[in-house]
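May I ask for a protein sequence together with how it folds?
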Amino acid sequence: MQKNKPNYELIQVAKNSAITELVHKLDYDLDKWIEFSTKPLPETIRVNPIHQDYNWTISKLNDLGGKRIEWVGKKTSAFQMPWIKGGAKDSETKKLLQSMHNSGRHTRQEAVSMIPAELIDPKPGESILDSCAAPGSKSTQIAELAKDDAAIIANEPNKGRMNMLVTNRSRLGLRSIAITQHDARNFPRVPQPGFDSILVDVPCSGTGTIRKNKGLWWNWKPQISKSLHKLQLRITERCSTLLKPGGKMVYSTCSIDPLENEVIVTKLLEKFEWLELEKIDVDEKLPGLKYNSGIDDFELFIEENTFSKNPIEKSISQLKNCIRIDPSQNDSGGFFIAMFRHIGDEENAHSLKYREEWPIGKKDLKNDHGSPKPLSDERRKILEKEWGHWQGFSGTLWERGRTIIEASKTLGEYFFEPPRIDGMGYQLPGNHWHPLKVRQLGRVGFKDSNSQSIRPKAELLRGQFSFPEKHIFKIEKEVLIRLLDENVIPIEELDEGFKNERAGSILLDINWITGRRLLPAWLGTGLRLLLDENEKFVLKNQRDDLI
């Protein structure tokens, strides 16, 4: 680990801060907490398991000195690098890591924030809600763990933050995520019986992120937690009513304040008798994780130098089932996690019943808020005429503007096809997103410029992909190496098959050092790769390994 000299000025500020006063009341080891909380975070990375270069990426991180983080969970390949966040040993390494991130091979993410997706433990075919999803690290991790074959609703009310969510989904080339824009406190009802799993990673005061947000030492006040408490409670209450019987809900914050954690958990248990707080089997699910149990006896920090007794009338033994992580235990950020189970049946699932007197389709559903629509027969014919049938294709095709989108089959089956009930209890027809405001869906598959020229995008070829019948050319490694070095190969120097091909978009099929790859290219007077600089840089690095 790259070492930094202690920041004595920051340590003095920390000792006199309101956050440290809170830590003292929580009975943490104060000296150790200050020691770690004033240090920069280590660089931690999550590897994308559905990318074709998964094994190569792990090998490269090992070569760079990365160490596997076992306590994140058994299914997530997480690494801690031997330097602080953003402090790679040289410019070439920095560029390589950034290019690997931008091309979807891995994600730079704080280690503790990887735990909630592990506890969700998503399976292919399940329906999952991430209620407060931006910037998308947890939503994308859920998609990866579900082998990109689930129905994941990643919700974000803020348009600016939603753009970050779109960017991360695109970067990883994931097809199982639908991005919605709703206030999570009023998230609309979905087809019965509800979600299999829900992640509620609520907006919080961020006291657990103090290692990367040093301004908190000066700026945090207990009133901040108090101002967020009502929002956190309303979001979590709403999500509780969207959970199917038998379903799982994970609540998490990057806060150490009981007002944002144990108090929320207690109020949920008191309000919903069919919710149970599950004990997390840390040894099985998060082997090696050092943590504290939830607190069932505490005082609340009301204002500076003022605490009040816990408002909970009696201690609830279930609170010990929660997990608290402080920075000194795993050289990480601070975090809180609680895992609930819906142990009731459909009678107490808070589902609205049909108003039978209203016929199906009585309401005007308008245009689905500009959401993607199933690919029209006309555009499907144009696509098939251009590229033929795609072998092994298992997703569904949608359109939005000039974009053709690939999404998981499960997304359509869960949220588009079935009838549903609106907030007034009226039954709405199927084959509609309403009332979900689906802003983005799946991954960009094709772009058409004039309704006759349809070009596959690199995003389509990340992760799971299939093979078209037309305009695909097998090439040897030497051809790709030359393209990487020279950018273009004149058509007269290419094999005869290229010379007989029409000008335009094609796909190159190559058995590369990391396995079989499909690469988008353009054929005109010469052959060019249609790849961004990040992908080219990684391929050049792999080429150097080959040479």
Notes: Residues 242 and 445 are 31 Å apart (CA to CA). The chain has 18 helices and 28 strands. The mean pLDDT is 88.
